[in-house]
User: Fold Transcription factor domain-containing protein from Aspergillus versicolor CBS 583.65.
Amino acid sequence: MDIEEMAWRYYFTNFNITRPNASTPGKPEPYIATSSSGTCSVTSVGLAALATVRKDPHMMHLARRKYSAALRYLARAVTDPVELAKGSTTSASFNLSMFEMIISDTPSAAYSWLKHIRGTAALLRVVQLPSPNMLFAMVGCLQVSFTVAVGCLIANQPVSRYVTRLVKSFRKEECEEIAPIIELFIILSSLVNLYIEAERVDISDDDGNHLSSALSDIDADLISWKKRLPPIWTGDPNTGSAIHSGNPLWIPKLWGYYQLCRILTQRVILDHTVQSTQRREESLATLSEMSGHIYELVPMMLRRSFCPNSAYPEQCLGLTSDVFFLVTILQALIKLTDRRTVVDEWAGPAQKQLGERFNLLRAFVARFLH
Assistant:
């Protein structure tokens, strides 16, 4: 197996977010096969991950060359209306954000992934999802959209309306199973925009009272959303769901975003409304409780990283797209709560469950908590 074939195999086993299973080793996905930016971005991510795991500087040099090539091809693609609308172009931009995170090894580079997420968000304005395997394409698009929303929160930028409009446009007959995720994304994007607006303007007492009431309603909606979730999204393995059986790793991310919504709601209440001492204590307790739930999800979110039957022993060191999603959630948590507490507590449940096997991955994630 040549080095690029190894990179492809590693990517589609560990980083692919649109399809349920890995591609045939060495053979590109149909939607990427005709995209130069797509193929180069996949190779760059796979090589960078393998290079990091193996501490191989030669492989990392090749990864950076593929990254540079992907950037050039992407720059050309965005000037071509046909290429611009392809899902592979958006996927390439998203892949480059994961590449940036993999290679970032200094505090100053901890948020470098955001620059490509901004480009990915812009591409969502014109992307056309492929008709074959539409359900999995929508699930992939949702994961990208959630990351865009979290990136907007971290960067103090509103979520663009066209991103929400795209998610709302998913055809009902094809997305019944993922309807709760669509609903949660709409809530999250609305909360991010509300948070950004509240941070930017002075709020009068009357506006604060109105905001407090609206946020309490949103919090109630979130609790109701949780109660209405069908079994396929609560971890029941006996449902026969295509999404559940194909991509069960979505479940901990789903709950992570739910808890982030609860935290975001309470953060705005605490910072921009007048509350009684008791109500403030309740909000602070909710922040702590929801943060704790996110930490408890970490072992489940990272279970691919510690697969005992892996064809690649190096996979057990943990570099997957799930690590990328975890870092984005933890960085948002740092913004909304207390950095020192996040740094001290996020790894506790995973360390307890995984022991010394978790040390390397814990150190990798810790590089981004600044």
